[in-house]
Hints:
Structural class: mainly alpha
Number of domains: 1
Oligomer: single chain
Amino acid sequence: MTRDTVHRFVRFALIGGIGFIVDAGGLLLMMQAELNAFLARVVSIALAMLVTWRLNRAITFGASHDGQLREGARYALVALGVAALNYTIYAALLLAIPACPPLIATALSTGACMIISFAGYGRFAFRSA
């Protein structure tokens, strides 16, 4: 790994932390509004995706050269794929371990998806060519 890649990954991880706060906070808010843990997580993931796209564009990867619409579409493709994996891990944890708190399942599933999303965003969503 080059020094630039390490620095980019650190920025990505910090923004991921912000995304996790948005995700977890949204999850808690939705559950307090009496949505079940499964539906609440769909909403919270969507909120986190929007926040992390904008921050990763500004801070981690920089804007791609073909405009926000195409970049946003590529980001959405990667994010939806990673979100599907993230949600699958989350749901599996909650179903396999009924006593598992939703926030713990969120943290574990998000951590498991971190490298995949970094590679997908860097190589596809924010590509320069």
